[in-house]
């Protein structure tokens, strides 16, 4: 450990640090876990982990299932998450825009941001006849397995990309997802040159999506806006119409965030 790291760590509160490590592990797992598994995953002494878990449970940040004894995230974590989401400018300015986008296209619409290697859905509106409700506000999905995530990665330099994915193989590979880091990088560069993503059954069979980036006043990608089209392949006669509606929504939200250019075309991006 470097002297700088030692100086930074001497001000840390060990109990708080360990409690947050447990919360992050429960968040990453997307499932309930028993005490023994939590201890194994976070590599914290049993007695310390027990006290941290009891404190988190008392404060409502985790809950223990009364029948199974397994632990999961509690309502106070969700409350913090929703308050954070509600504080985002992109949500405040984007919500009415995606409602209009839904009404115009007849498709469910979303706004998402990137948090590390996760995509987080921060706003959504469902089409009246939507049959697929896979995501809700706060849902996290792996960046490399979603078309929204690919678009969010277009902002990264090669060095930033490799820092995010230091391993050559990608985690949790499934059919349709890139096989490795280089395959993902190649897709992201194509997406960057194009300026948008049309992904047909990329993440879920029978569902296509159209995704455009959202830019803030500094010209940085703040998030993405998308529509979910309930077809395996978007008909040629609908493709341009739907794409232009999403591009217009992206321009509107980006301009409300202070961006002076046109979000709906990579050739016009910085």
TrEMBL record:
Record-annotated membrane-spanning stretches: none
Alphabetical UniProt keywords: DNA-binding, Transcription, Transcription regulation
SMART domains: HTH_ICLR
Domain HTH iclR-type, first and last residues per copy: 13-75
GO BP terms: negative regulation of DNA-templated transcription
Coiled-coil residue spans: none
Chain ranges of the IclR-ED domain: 76-259
GO molecular function, one term: DNA-binding transcription factor activity
Taxonomy, superkingdom: Bacteria
Protein name: Transcriptional regulator, IclR family
């Amino acid at each position: 450990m470097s002297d700088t790291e030692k100086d930074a760590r001497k001000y840390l509160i060990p109990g708080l640090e360990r409690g947050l490590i447990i919360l992050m592990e429960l968040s990453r797992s997307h499932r309930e876990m028993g005490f023994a598994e939590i201890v194994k995953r976070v590599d914290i002494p049993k007695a310390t982990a027990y006290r941290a878990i009891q404190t988190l449970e008392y404060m409502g940040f985790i809950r223990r299932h009364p029948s199974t004894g397994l632990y999961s995230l509690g309502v106070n974590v969700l409350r913090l998450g929703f308050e954070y989401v509600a504080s985002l400018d992109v949500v405040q300015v984007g919500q009415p825009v995606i409602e209009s986008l839904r009404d115009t296209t007849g498709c469910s619409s979303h706004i998402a941001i990137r948090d590390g290697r996760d995509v987080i859905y921060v706003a959504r509106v469902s089409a009246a006849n939507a049959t697929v409700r896979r995501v809700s506000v706060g849902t996290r999905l792996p960046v490399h397995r979603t078309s929204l995530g690919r678009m969010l990665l277009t902002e990264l330099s090669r060095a930033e990309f490799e820092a995010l994915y230091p391993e050559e193989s990608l985690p949790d590979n499934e059919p349709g997802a890139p096989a490795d880091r280089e395959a993902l990088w190649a897709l992201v560069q194509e997406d960057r040159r194009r300026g948008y993503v049309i992904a047909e059954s990329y993440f879920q069979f029978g569902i296509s999506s159209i995704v455009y980036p959202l830019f803030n006043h500094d010209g940085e990608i703040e998030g993405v806006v998308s529509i979910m089209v309930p077809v395996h392949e978007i008909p040629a006669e609908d493709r341009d119409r739907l794409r232009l509606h999403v591009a217009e929504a992206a321009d509107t939200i980006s301009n409300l965030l202070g961006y002076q250019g046109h979000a709906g075309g990579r050739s016009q991006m910085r």
